[in-house]
Predict the structure.
Amino acid sequence: MNIERFDNEDVLASALAVRLIEAISLKPRIVLGLPTGRTPVALYREVRTRSRRGHVDWSQVRTFNLDEFVGLGAGDAGSYRTYMQGELFDHVRIEPINIGMLDGRAANLAAECARYELAIEAAGGIDIQVLGIGANGHIGFNEPADTLDAETHVAVLQAETRAANAGLFDGDLTRVPTHALSMGMATILHAHEIVLMATGAEKSSAVAGMIDGPITTRLPASFLQVHPRVTVLLDRGAAARLA
Ligand code: PGA
């Protein structure tokens, strides 16, 4: 893994924004895998600002988000679709047809997961997958467990993960869904290139385990060790426990 350290989350976010925009200019039909959560808020802010200033051509860019809550979709408060519209999609000239998101309101969730795998494949796979990491070591909603799912699947959210998402629901834990749809480990690991961003001391144990620990289903991010092109971007807090 290629580890890069930054003084704070703002410099980290602008460095990654610059790289993503550069990647779009080199490959206009790029396929980006995108995360939600608190960590990428600064990234999307930088991408929006730079897209406005630099006339970045989003017209052919295709995206696939990592996950979505079961029961929620476009227009729903708290959905990742709504998050993505507000943080990025409403501010750049991406074609709606090029936005790949799981529909948490699909009547047949298994069919929706299968559709997503096929859509990613039809797009030619993900060129750059951007990831966050949970304090428990999850990527997407691949939570620590005895076994992990390879493909896009219905995931049961752990209490810690639901609590971390309460902010999307006015801090009301009872409104945070108990299940989500998520890309699986293979879906993520098939990306050509992976960039994981982590900020804050609360991520430092998961980050240290991911980089220096054994590969284990108890820390799903540790599987990134098998991928040949992974870059990990850390602020001081997240890097604090590295050897
Ligand atoms: P966070 O989530 O950015 O809100 O900490 C990261 C993740 O769970 O992947």
